[in-house]
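Box S1 | Example of a co-folding query
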Amino acid sequence: MFSISRDELGPNFTFGAATAAYQIEGGQTDGRGTSIWDTFSSTPGNVKNLDTGAIACDHYNRWPGDLDLIRDGGFDAYRFSFAWPRLIPEGTGVVNPKGLEFYDRLIDGMLERGIKPYATLYHWDLPSPLQDKGGWMNRDIASWFAEYAAVVGHHFGDRLHATATINEPWCVAFLSHFLGIHAPGYRDLRAASRAMHHVLFAHGTAIDALRAESVKNLGIVLNLEKTEAASDKPEDIEAQNLGDALFNRWYLDGVFKGRYPEALTSRLAEYLPEGFEKDMEVVSRPLDWLGINYYTRGLYAAGPNGLFGAERRSGDLETSDLGWEIYPKGLEDLLVRVNRDYTKLPLYVTETGMSETNDERRVKYYDDHLRAVANAQGQGADVRGFFAWSLLDNYEWSQGYTSRFGIVHVDYETQVRTPKASYRAFQGMLHNTR
Ligand code: FCB
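Box S1 (continued) | Returned holo structure for beta-D-fucopyranose
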């Protein structure tokens, strides 16, 4: 059980659960094209046990039961993503009617159950033919993505409660093109620099395309960390400042101030796309809400092993089974900071959760993070909603199926879903409140 009650988050607060297409759908049939995750996951060395999303949670077939779980848990909303290669197999051009039909069924299934659809256009499954042309490194991605956004907006827009363009641009750019941990697995500063700009430029062109289709309530989902310095030595504080610029400010400053942090534009000058400054008006198009995904803090110290001398260290807080430090106060501080320094827009915690098999720990995690949200509200942050990551145990990218984030357990042999204590805790709090 949670100690916090629904009332403490305010009368119109939205509770939801989140997933992403590649992590749960499977269903690689009916004309779906391939994505960068299909080939990345099939390449030895990238993902534990060479696990792929080929079947995942078989949500493509089992979605009615999964939507029932959301409704029966008392949740108001479901945050899901569209698979670009299911809708437009080549990335641009011909639209796959079976793909449209799948998301028609899914969205109508939400509406029939009184669940609000919170959609994400891009949660990392880039169509392979676009990667062949350079993917996020190619400036043309801004028009490819806008074309896809227009298709989604035209066909589904009037049924979506809220729409985000990109999930976690830091991951799309830096984790995938500099750290090489996610598809397409580049480890290259120039590749990363170009992706860092193009991902936000494409976000802006997609906002324009969605607005042209009269789609309402548009946002972006940023993954942010509370950055801290390992000590109060000036060099560690400088490392924190750089870490914060790379992880948080690049995206926040870009979207809300129409400029990138000088600490990075100076250091990345020779790699960034020429003339990027001219795109900043598009990057910073007005939005209706901001989604924040929060998992842990970033602790920085000066050292030779990080980009520009900023090393990310592990701290001594309690961790999840992935070794991520658990730090609810960081969420509180981050929400207050974003509200104070960046935007008065409504904020949503669009993901938080922990990888863990002892579910009592997950119950406490959610209770503490909900309390952090209430504390941030008390300091003026306009936080309107909270989505658990994740509804189901699912394909956790490079961890494959070894990492379990679900509030519902999935037996991957039988596909049987079993609600965990954390699901019951949400249900207990939300029961009869929709
Ligand atoms: C986030 C991703 C999500 C999931 C969680 C654990 O970075 O958006 O797909 O992998 O982390």
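The chain has 15 helices and 13 strands. The mean pLDDT is 98.
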